[in-house]
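[Meeting: bench + compute handoff]

Bench side (C.D.) handed over the final construct sequence. Compute side (W.E.) agreed to return the predicted structure before the next meeting so the bench team could plan truncations. Sequence as handed over:
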Amino acid sequence: MGKIYAIANQKGGVGKTTTCVNLAASLAATRKRVLLVDLDPQGNATMGSGVDKNAQEFTVYDVLMGLIRIENTVQRSPEGHYDVLPSNGDLTAAEVEMLSLEKKEYRLHKALAELTAPYDYVLIDCPPSLNMLTVNALTACQGVIIPMQCEYYALEGLSALVDTITTIQSVLNPSLKIEGILRTMYDPRNSLTGDVSQQLHSHFGDRLYRTCVPRNVRLAEAPSFGLPVIAYDKQSKGALSYIALAGEIIRRNDPKAPEVPAAV
């Protein structure tokens, strides 16, 4: 198994699912083998990958309940060229049902450990709250990628998330770390954007990704077609940003890695 990253933020509307879908597609475009785990009952990452959440016989719910193995649940994103562990509204019941299960925080960790497919990257799309699903994601992963907007309230939310990660690290997952902070819906014309970016750089240093994802109409339109933006409009600013982010993540993991052109 390669790198496992949770895409998490307790604040909603920061581009978390958008990041998970488009980072998965961009990593796949550089010929990496990618699995996207949709851990949000809304199933937006599933639908955004071109997989119908309502047509699934088995989902991540069945995996967490130990009813079926991941290999028998994974679907292929037809245009994203990565694998998807789908989710739908059934997952809402999982949080309550897991409370009575043994080692409930490790259900996803155990399921991923049983994977036989050799993935380079596993990306977990977390719900926008701190619940048992998010705890499972943070326990199963090696690092957290945090998408956030450059605004005041986002900084407050980030502080709470960092505290949560520290707690999970001390109690459940000693190897957990913040992999990177991604600035989304970025508008350099806004003075507050510059101020927040400076604070992020001062506090997180090189864990702040150089790549920024701008506000982009194509990014907003692509999910309605069940497409990652790289398949919807590969020349858009949104697509180019996520391709750049994928390259940055690959080079962080392997500084000697050559620049790999995206196969788009």
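W.E. noted at the follow-up: Residues 260-264 have pLDDT under 50 and may be disordered. C.D. will use this when planning the next construct.
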